[in-house]
TrEMBL record:
NCBIfam families: Cof-subfamily, HAD-SF-IIB. The keyword Membrane does not apply. Keywords: Hydrolase, Magnesium, Metal-binding. Belongs to the HAD-like hydrolase superfamily. Cof family. Pfam families: Hydrolase_3. This is Sugar/pyridoxal phosphate phosphatase YigL.
Length: 267
């Protein structure tokens, strides 16, 4: 029996409308009642996730910014790892003149972006978490949990992925959370490393964990957990990378909650 459940949010636990559905909420409540720990493990900002956790109504750890931040069930920051300020400045310099790409920063309690994008509001309907614009010629570079780049053209962003890997090497961690969102974190940051830290705080091992995800930013977590499960709607690159992992249904059908109900909850 697994004692800790970790799940990604968008494309995994949340509906296509980026919300917690009633059935999923009910299953998570039952998990808590049975003494099984739950962890939100996401690329989202911790302010955003705290609001989602409040909607669910259970105490839970939060792994956010792909593992750059970990908050406990009392919302206390228990781990952080920032991107080196010099690298943040350099990354912005690399991309700032490309008008086709939007640059985002997560730092402290802020979400900053190089130009406003109203489409992103649909991801934050329940939390109301709001972004504000920053000056790319005078950017804040300290306390940055992650910097990410959005353009609705995966092949175009792949060029930046290759450039960043060649330029910064192991000074950063790089992953696509969606095909259109390229994310850069500090060296060694991943949901998998954060999950191991959370498990230790619960006096558990990674073998006691089950995890769900759909993005390249979930790969380390799905490999680290005792059992990692991939969503049917996951990126093709994820399925190829994790070809040994079982694939479950779609987030549109609340597949995570249905799997937990069938395999973890007392019947």
């Amino acid at each position: 029996m697994y004692k800790l459940v970790a799940s990604d949010l968008d494309g995994t636990l949340l509906t296509p409308e980026h919300r917690i559905a009633p059935y999923t909420k009910q299953v998570l409540e039952h998990l808590h009642q049975q003494g099984i720990h739950f962890v939100f493990a996401t690329g989202r900002h911790h302010v955003d996730v705290a609001s989602i956790r409040e909607t669910v109504g259970i105490p839970a750890y939060m792994i956010t910014s792909n593992g750059a931040r970990v908050h406990d069930s009392d919302n206390q920051l228990v781990y952080q790892h920032n991107v080196d300020p010099a690298i943040v400045a350099s990354l912005i310099q690399d991309v700032k003149d490309d008008a086709t790409v939007t640059i985002h920063l997560y730092r402290d309690d802020e979400w900053l972006l190089s130009k406003m994008d109203e489409e992103l509001a649909r991801y934050h309907q329940d939390s109301g978490f709001q972004a504000r614009e920053f000056d790319v010629d005078n950017p804040p570079v300290d306390n940055v949990a992650k910097i990410f780049f959005i353009r609705h053209d995966h092949d175009y962003l792949l060029q930046y992925e290759h450039q960043f890997i060649e330029q910064y090497g192991d000074q950063v961690s790089i992953a696509f959370s969606t095909p259109f969102c390229l994310e850069v974190m500090g060296s060694g940051v991943s949901k998998g490393a954060a999950l191991e830290a959370v498990a230790r705080r619960h006096q558990l091992n990674l073998s006691d964990c089950i995890a769900f995800g759909d993005g390249m930013n979930d790969v380390e977590m799905l490999n680290a957990a005792g059992q990692g499960l991939v969503m049917a709607t996951a990126q093709a690159r994820v399925k190829a990378t994790l070809s040994d992992k079982a694939i479950i249904g779609s987030h549109a059908d609340e597949a995570v909650a249905r799997y937990l109900k069938a395999h973890l909850l007392d019947q």
